[in-house]
Amino acid sequence: MMAQAADKAARSLIRDFNEVENLQVSRKGTNDFVTAADLRAEQTLKEELSRVRPGFGFLLEESGPVKAADGRSRWIVDPLDGTLNFMHSVPQFAISIGVEQDGELIAGIVFDPIKDELFWAEKGRGAFLNHRRLRVSARDKLSSSLVAHGRSADESPEARQRFMTQMNHVLSHTRDLRRMGSAALDLAYVAAGRLDGYWEDGLKPWDIAAGIVLVREAGGYLTAVDGSPVELERGSVLAANPHLHGQLHKALAGR
Ligand code: 2AM
Ligand code: CA
C-alpha cells in the first residue's frame, strides 16, 4: 500500500523531473517549479496514505505534523529527498515513507522512481530491493570501503570545521568517499551493500525514518555520529556494516 502511494506520487515527480531538464537551459529559476513539484508529490502521498490507513497521523516535510486519530501510528514522509539533485536534473532522488507505531519505527520504503528501485523493509521481516532480499556488505577492511556522507544543514563555522575534519579523517582511512545528495538513498544503499557506511548530521526525521528500518533489517549497525543511540529528532546518523561500524566511528573521531 505504501508502494502504491509512492508509485502514484512518483509519476508526477518523473513528469516534473523531465520538465526540470528542459528548464536547465532557460534562464528562468527552477526553484519555484521544484517547490511546486515537491508539494504536488506530498499532496498525492497524503491523500493516498490517508485512504489506506485513515487513522494514522503524519509527519510531512512540507506540511508539518498531523495527529493520529488513535494516537499510536504515523507516517513519516519525505516526498522528495535529494531536492538539490532534482533541481539540477541529477537523477538521484527518492520518495521516503516510514511508519512509526508507539514511538517505534516498524516499516519503511525508499523509492527511486528514475531507476525504478523500491527499497522496503518491515521490522522482523527483512529488507528488500524490489523482490530481492538485502544484506549489508561483508567488507571488513575500512581501507577498501566506500563510505557516503552528507553535508550538515548547520552552516555555522564550528559545524563546517567539524565536517571538514571528519571528512579528512575518513578520507585517509577508506577507499573513497561519496556525497550523493539523498540521505534516504544513502541509507538504502548501505542496506543493499552498495555502500559500506554512511554518516551525516543535521538531518530531519523524514530524511532517515525509512532508511533506518532498511539498514537494521539488512543487518547493519546504526548509531548517532557520536556513537550514542540513534534518535529521529536529533538527526545524527552513522550507519555501516557490523564489521566497519566501530572502525568508522573511530576514524570519524580521529582515533
Ligand atoms: P532534501 O533533499 O529533502 O532537502 C543531503 O545531504 C541530505 O540532507 C538530503 O537528504 C537532504 O534532504 C537533507 N537536507 C538538506 N538540507 C536539509 C535541512 N535544512 N534540514 C534537514 N535535512 C536537509
Ligand atoms: Ca529530505
**Oligomeric state as shown:** single chain
Helix percentage range: 25-40%
CATH class of the largest domain: Alpha Beta
CATH topology group of the largest domain: Fructose-1,6-Bisphosphatase, Chain A, domain 1
Task: Give the second-level CATH assignment, the architecture of the largest domain.
Answer: 2-Layer Sandwich
CATH superfamily of the largest domain: Fructose-1,6-Bisphosphatase, subunit A, domain 1
Helix count equals: 7
The SSE order reads HHEEEHEEEEEEHEHEHEEH
Structural class: alpha+beta
Strand order of the largest sheet: 2-1-3-4-5-6-7-8
Name the shape in a single word.
globular
Query: How much strand?
Result: 15-25%
Q: Ions, cofactors, ligands: which are bound?
A: adenosine-2'-monophosphate, calcium ion
Unreliable spans: none
Q: Tell me the Rg in angstroms.
A: 18 Å
Overall pLDDT confidence: 95
**Main beta-sheet strand count, sense and barrel state:** 8 strands, mixed
Number of strands: 13
Number of domains: 2
The first-to-last residue Cα distance is 45 Å
